[in-house]
Amino acid sequence: MTATTAPASRTLLFIGDSITDAGRREDPEELGHGYVRLLADHYAAHEPTATVINLGIGGDKVADLEARFGPDCLDLAPDLVTIYVGVNDSWHSFTRGEHVSEESFEQGYYGTCWHSWRPPCPMHRC
Predict the structure, then answer these.
(1) How far apart (Å, rounded) are the C-alpha atoms in residues 113 and 101?
(2) CA-CA distance, 54 to 99, in Å (whole number)?
(3) pLDDT tens column, 43-68
(4) Contact status, residue 75 vs residue 11, Cβ threshold 8 Å
């Protein structure tokens, strides 16, 4: 019989806007009640040593994420990062008159968020 070793514990970090936030600050586990909660439940059942962190903030735009990407993401050195942001960059042009150009969005998202990550973190661009 061959001994199997337990997989190394991983930290999975979710960062973005209200779709990620989903009420995390009102949740004692700080996971919220959206997709991060569903994934946390999945990992609890299938990879119980994994740590799931939700750092979504409702209303955030790419510029907000840029400003906090270091301390809220890079400094935590997660093994996997999921970024869900961009709705407010478009929506706020209608509701607040705040226009974010495509170039500014792209520079913020791909420039700061995408290129500031150092391997070996698996980060997939959509």
Answers:
(1) 17
(2) 27
(3) 999 999 999 999 999 999 999 998 99
(4) no
